[in-house]
Amino acid sequence: MSSETRHQEPIIKLKAVPTVSAIYQAVVSLGMMLAPRQFGIDAVPADSPPALIAFLRIFSGPMLGIAVLNWMARNAEPSAARNAIVLANIVGFGCVTLMDVWGVFTGGARPIAKLFLLIHLLLTVAFVVAWRTIKAERI
């Protein structure tokens, strides 16, 4: 491998990936927390039981925490912690993407799920590319 290849600019700037992810996750989690029926249009019925609304609000708390973690990690220097954050996002967004695929292709998802599938797939791919960039930095 030539030194030119080794020092190429990465396809995706590592800082951009957790930044975009943090903003996206914050918007989604705040939407689920503050306006779950409106945010979950076509998925959360207007006459939803209070337990469902409470579940959505509780679930949104850890997601907001992950948004903060990603925001704080956007400028992190290379470290085992940064690597763990990137890998955890690959797993998280990968799982969400698989659930989107399942819902969209079985017909059980709401119409907007196709958009979320695209967003989640792009975030998964972006974190995979970031992971590969991290691995290439070690070589």
Describe the structure.
The chain is mainly α and 139 residues long. It has one domain. It contains 6 helices and no strands. The protein has helices at residues 3-6, 16-34, 36-39, 50-73, 80-106, 113-138. Helix 2 (16-34) runs antiparallel to helix 4 (50-73) and helix 5 (80-106) packs antiparallel against helix 6. The model is unreliable at 1-5 (pLDDT under 50).
Number of strands: 0
Separate helix tally: 6
Low-confidence stretches: 1-5
Helix content: over 70%
| Major sheet summary line | none
Beta content comes to under 5%
**CA(first)-CA(last) distance:** 10 Å
Give the ordered list of helices and strands: HHHHHH
Secondary-structure class: mainly alpha
Structurally, how many domains make up the residues? 1
**Could you say which overall geometry the principal axes of the C-alpha atoms support?**
globular
Radius of gyration: 17 Å
Mean pLDDT figure: 90
Give the gist of this structure.
It is built from 6 helices and no strands.
Q: Topology of this structure?
A:
Layout: H1 3-6, H2 16-34, H3 36-39, H4 50-73, H5 80-106, H6 113-138
Helix pairs in contact: 2-4, 5-6
Search tags:
mainly alpha; 6 helices; globular; disordered N terminus
